[in-house]
Write a structure and sequence with these properties.
2 domains, seven-stranded antiparallel beta sheet, single chain, 5 helices, binds heme C
Amino acid sequence: MKKATVGVVSLLCFSLAFFVFFFVLGTQAKMGMERPMVVKADGKALWDYLKKENYARNWNIWPGKNALYPGKEPHGALLTAYVNKVAYDAIKEKRGMFSDGSIIVKENYTADKKLAALTVMYKVKGYNLMVGDWFWAKYLPDGKIAAEGRVDACIQCHSMAKANDYIMIAPLK
Ligand code: HEC
């Protein structure tokens, strides 16, 4: 009788341990899936990520644009726009829209080729649904944040190109 009880109890303990183990494993896998694929929508985190990526070296320049192309107001006389891989593929395949994780870094130069600021658009699913889900950021050359987040001024002007996923530089299709 006693032996049987011990048997049942250990069986219960064993099943419980088994259950807990897989429950934890499952939760972690789920968390992994929900984690933002690139970096969180935060000015500082994004800047650190861009430095780490060394985008000017490792990313492509916007297809069809050169480095230091003559830009339009308000961004600067000369512009260089870099795109990460996800963004690059969307442009090349003429998808007409960017997908989650796309990053565009635009370096804004003065007429005498001095870097004046960096403006960045980062697509984060669910971040700002009504206006294209873009996280906006403006940095000074040393990384100081001049604006970040759901920045009204950026959104308002770029809304001209709402049908082009808020992109002004070129048609996406
Ligand atoms: C008054 C209008 C205006 C405002 C305000 C503005 N932009 Fe732009 N933006 C433009 C135009 C025009 C271009 C295209 C530049 C070119 O190719 O000459 C552009 C291009 C860009 C690009 C390259 C990708 C694209 O959308 O074409 C980024 C990135 C960008 N802007 C970020 C920002 C951020 C961040 C802000 C706010 C801090 C901002 N912009 C505010 C007009 C504006």
